[in-house]
Task: structure prediction
Amino acid sequence: MSARVTNVILAGLGGQGVIKASDILADAAVRAGYDVKKAEVHGMSQRGGSVTSDVRFGSRVLSPMIPRGEADFLVVLAPSEVEVTRPLLRPGGLLLAPDFVPEAELANKRCLNVALLGALSASLEIPAAIFLEAIKAALAERLHAVNEQAFELGRARGARVLAAAGT
Amino acid sequence: MTERRLLSGDEAVALAARDAGVHLGTGYPGTPSTEILEAFGALGGRAQWAPNEKVALEVGLGAAYGGARALVTMKHVGLNVAADPLFTAAYTGVSGALVVVTADDPGMASSQNEQDNRRYAIAAGLPMLSPADPQEAYDYLLRAIELSERWSIPVLFRMTTRVCHSKSLVTTRAAPPAPRAPRFERDIPGRVMVPAYARPAHRRLRAKLAELAAFGETSDLNTVTAGDPALGIITDGVCALHAAEAAPGASLFKIGLVHPLPIERLRAFAASVRRCLVIEEGDPVIADALRAAGIAVESKPEMFRFGELDVGRVRRILANDLSVEPPLPKGRPPELCAACPYHPVYATLRKLDCIVAGDIGCYTLGVMEPYRAMDTCVAMGASIGVGLGLRHVLPAEQARRVVSIIGDSTFIHSGVSGIMEMAYNPPASGHVVIVLDNGITAMTGQQEHPGTGRTLEHEATGKISIEGTTRAMGIETTVIDAFADPAGFERLLVERLAAPRLSVIVARRPCVLAAADIRGWEKAAEASRSSAAASCAGCAAEEA
Result:
C-alpha cells in the first residue's frame, strides 16, 4: 500500500450520480484498508447545479479537501464541467472526461458514473473485486448486473489507455 | 463493542447520540445540519422536527429540565432564532444534558450569511466544543453530554459544513454511563428567571465558567503536538487538519473546547515558539481573545475572514501571501427544477412587474434568470414584515405592486407572526402574501413540517392548515394550483393587487422531486389514521 495520499475529484451536475460514485470509491478504499476522507458540498446541488466530490485515501489523510491543483485524477460526468474543473487537476494528472466511455456502449446511460469509476480503477491499486463489492453494497440488487457491466467496460478502456501510455 | 465505519460528521453525531441514550432529538432542518436528526431517527432514536429553532430549543430544554439527555440541531442562522431561550437557559442550567448543535457555513455553500457562532458561546456564556472531523464529532458529542451533566449547563456544539458533510472513518467508543430516568425535581429559584432569582443565577453561571476554564487548562479536549519551535499554530475545528497538512513540522495547539479558552496553556505555548499564528475560519475569535489576554499572536490577514479555509489558503496565510486568490471554479448555478410548480408564479410576478419581498427556500431561486422576480431575501419569515414595511412607505403606485412570497415550511417557521402583524397594522394599500405550498421542506431535501401532517419519520400526526390559520386571523385566503391554471392565477393576482385589501394566495402543488414520496407517505399515513379511527369505538359511536 502506497503511503502517499491519492486524490480523486469526481464532478458533474446534480442528479448524475457524482455522490453515489464517490461513495462507492470511498467504500472501496476503506475495504482495501486505506484511511479515507471524502468531502462535498450538498444543498443546492439537487437543483441541477454543479457538484464536485473529493475522495482522498492513503495510509493517513488529514484535510478532507483536496488542495486546488493537486488532484491526481479528475473524473467528470458532464461535458459542461470539464473546463471549469480542469484547474483542480495537478500537472500530469489524469482526466477522465464523460466521452472516455462512449454512451452508445452503455446498456444504460445512467451507469456512466460507474463506468468512469471502472476506467479510474484501472489506474488504482484497489483490486477490481473490491470495487465490485462496493458497487453491490451501494446499489439495489436489480441494478447490480447493469452496473457491473458498466464497470467492466470502463475498466477495460482504462486498462487500454494505460497500456498505450506505457505505464 | 467498537466498530469502524465511514460516516459523515452528521451521521457520527447521530450515532453518538444513540450510543449515549439521548432521549430526544429535535431541531429545524437547515443545511448542513439536517441529516443529524434524520440519521438519529433511522438509528431508532426519538427524533422530531419543530416548527422553528426557538421551539426546538425550548422542547430540548424542557426535556433536560426533566432530567433527560436532549440533542437540539440547527444551522448557524437558526441559533439566531433560538437565541432568546439560549441566553437564559445558560442561567437556569439543566438537570439532565442539553447539547445544542450549531452548523456553521463558512463560505456560504447554502446560506444567506457566514456568521461565526463561536461568538454565541462568548455572548451567552456557554461551553462550546468544536470537532474537526467525524471521529471527533462522535467523541466530542459524548464528551458534550458528560460536560453538560457534570456542570448542569447547556453545551454548544459547533460544526461547520466540512465537518458535517465530509466522511471519514469513525471508531465507536464506550458511551458515558447510561442516563438516569427522567424525573421532575422542583427548583423554583433555579428555573424561574424573575430578576431576584436571575441575579444569583448569573453569578452561578460565571462560577461554572470559571470551573470550565480551569478544566480546559488540563483537558485532553485541547491538545498540543510538539514540533518545530520556529512555528507554532493555534487552531480549531477542521482548520487543524488543513494546518497539519500545510505545515507538517510545525508545533500545533488544537483547541477542542473553544469556550472557555485554555488561556494559560495557550500563553505557555505561544511563549514556546518563535512565530505563533492563529489559523481559524471566519472571525478572528481566538486571536482577539489571546491578544486581549496579552498574548502576542499573529492573526490571519483580513482577506481570509471570508470563505472557508483549505490547505492552499492555510499555506498562503503561513507565507503571508496577500496576492489575489484565483477564483474558485464557477460551475453551473442551481435553478428552479424544470417541472417546479412555481414557474407560473414567477412568470406572473415578472409580467406584472411586482416588487417581491422574498424568503428562504428553493423558491429563492426565482431571483435567477429568466425571472429575476425577487427583490429582497433576508431571513426566515422576513418576506411578510419586509413587504409590509415597503407598503407602508412607498408611493401608492409602487406600494400596490408589493407582494410577499413565502414557502410552506417557512410560513410555519415564522411567517405566521408576519400575518398577525399584517392583520394588526394593515398598510393603506392592503397587501398580498403568496404562500408557495409544495407540501414539503424542499430546499433541505424534503423534510416534513407541521403543515404536512406527518412526523419526521413520515407518520400521521396533527396537521396545521395554512389557509385555516390565515382565515382565522381574518385574512381573505384563496387556494389555487398556479401550475394547472396559470391564467387563473394571473387573474387572481391582478384582482388582489388592485384592491386595497389584505389577502393571502396559497399556490399549492407538491414539489416535483417529492411528489411520489409524498403520495407514498400520505397513503401510509392515511391507512394508519383510518385504522386508528376504526379501533376507537368511542368516537365511532358518537358520530353515529
About this structure: Chain A has one domain: 6-165. Chain A is about 35% helix and 20% strand.
